## 1
Amino acid sequence: MKTRDRIIHAALALFNQHGEPNITTNHIAADLGISPGNLYYHFRNKEAIIHSIFDQYAQDLALAFDPSQPRDDTQALLQHYLDATFSLMWRYRFFYANLPDILRRDDALQQKYLGAQQQLQTNLMTILHHYRQAGWLSLNDSALSAVGETLKQVASSWIFYQSAQAPQTQIHAGVIYKGILQMLALLHPLTSAQGQMAITALIDHYEQQLVRQDSRSLDTLN
């Protein structure tokens, strides 16, 4: 792996583990066993590293959901989207946790973020339109757009919201599963009987994932 890629990889791991505000370029260099000067040869500051991580995130977001895939299984399509959402939220959890502070100090990054949010909204609306075509939703365009916006807000702000609930909150996989369950809970009462059966099955699936995650957390503590 090239040094530049190693820096991005190490920074992402350290940001996720300790929180982006608590990590400096010196921490990243020390973790890699390189000099600060070597790091600055590739990145002029920490903000440049964050930009590169976000570019990677935006690329992963674009690839996470393929609108051209077959539409013959509506439930599987939604699960695929939710699994992709979980993967992204977990892999880049530092960004979600520190989102307001990171964007407040970097106008260029905020513009990138807005572009990524548009991609997220497009993905969500593709799912919702497919649900309506399958007869699982009977909302007009305005209502469908409002539901999509609400679900996007949950996905985008869930980790930050959970982080703000108590000092030193640790973000683990279970926190993200709870966010996915919250999205499903919002969608469930809006769907037809057939749609509710599918969403209930997905809720059961992710609740099982949450139980497994909680069990692993207890094993770690013990």
## 2
Amino acid sequence: MVEGEVTWRRLTEADFPLLRDWLLSPHVARWWHHETTPEAVARDFGPAARGEEPSEDLLVSLSGAPVGLVQRSRYGDYPEYIEELAPILAVHPETVSVDYLIGEVSLTGKGLGARVIRAVVDETWTSHPAAPAVVVPVSAANRASWRALEKAGFTRVAEGELEPDNPIDDRDHVIYRFDRPVADPVPTSI
């Protein structure tokens, strides 16, 4: 288990060189399959960094040192994802999704991913008060990713075929869900 405080802030354009390094790392490149030229990183992450699109790109730190990225978005802001999921799982537009990476390979396999995911999910209930759940589709082949979701408290709710992020993967995906916690009933006195 990796010790330290997990925090995050919005990704800025000044973070793009670090993000690019992470995207070039084999353990990230395998699953993110992202163009890594500086221009491509700026093109794809710039709008969120500047607040021009509704998704959030969050630079995650451990005890103040950057270690990864979480992308968080509402399905309603990207209706094409609702449509793609519809044959497998109905998703309310206020439902949130997250994608994540641990950029520092030395910190993988130590439970940090699950801690980061859970921390962001717990905060999601405040920053997205209408969200009924967080739903995350993951390539069935990406065992480390779906195991991190399970360790963070997610439940597998469906399986089906979706477009893979990496064209070398097949279409098989597993879908995980974390429902908004129900508040404890307020005790009444007699």
## 3
Amino acid sequence: MSYGDPNNPYGQPQGQPGYPSQEQGYGAPQQGQPGYGYPQAPAVQQPYGAVPQTMPGTVSGARAMLWVIVGLQVVGAVIFALGAVGLNAAKNDESLKDDSSFQQLVDYSTGKLWALVVFAIAWGVFAAVLATKFNSGGNGVRVTLLVFGIITAVLGLYPFTLIGIVHLVLAILIACFVGGSKGKAWFNRPRY
């Protein structure tokens, strides 16, 4: 029996893939042919696809929406402060001094309006701090942004229904953009 005989049924098949040719021999490495044993492992990939080098558009949009919320908070604080000052000035008006129901309303409303001024300023500062953390923040900032968006949406629904529609829409978009896959990849990216 000769392995060189092309008509030998027990010999090495000639020219079939997966078998070394006679020129290579059995100990020679095989180029381009799969070996025996365990299959090759796939190449190691980064989680969630490629690591973003620049901020994705949706994440950048969420940051811009946060700055819009900061601006709206400043405008709201000014309006509430002007309302409180106006009501306080009306409280001292001689023609309305005898109206006890108006005086009760003024006393109650000015305190609430000043509390709303403080809340609007605090919420605006919180939004500004979150907006500045987009480049350096990690997953904790992302979770805080999600909570911020959800609480802002809830506040836009209940106490400030008419005024809060813009806040509601912006907050939902912020939560969706930051909570999406691009937001997750951006905030979980490695920082060297």
## 4
Amino acid sequence: MVITWRRLTEDDFPLVKQWLERPHVARWWNHETSAEAVARDFGPAARGEEPSEDLLVFLDGRPLGLVQRSRYSDYPEYAEELAPILEVPGGAVSIDYLIGDEEQVGKGLGPSMIRAIVELTWADPEATCVIVPVSKANRASWRALEKAGLRRVAEGELEPDNPVDDRDHVIYRLDRPASAGEGAGEGAERGRVPA
């Protein structure tokens, strides 16, 4: 199995809309799913107007999911919200992710997708660590982070993505490995890594 990715384009919005409407995604992403809302919220990153990246992830050439990746320094309000719980160092990156097809959930693909995007992150020499806050109730998400090599470093209260959830969150982190120096991320830069 090979995981590949590319930047999300406006042509992908109908697929993203379908994924956001699926119950297993809607439960945690709590996103408006009209075509207008998808274009409004994903359009700026797709056009390069936002510093974040929306990456469409493929498994053996077929769409698997979506990863949003951003630097905390580009969105300081998120770092400020985390500050009472955990210091966010310069160069810290965050990710959010989903697997679109519910038939692919529970097969170990989430950790593979996360590992691939983290490897891509180390190709940026300024990236120091990956820090991901997750609703404590979303056990599948934080277990995927653990299986991908991130470790729980803090717990605390943050604004939930879905108003039905309480404020309890767990925070996972992975620091840049010493081996991620020159030459790191070669496969990741090509958008292709074995799953």
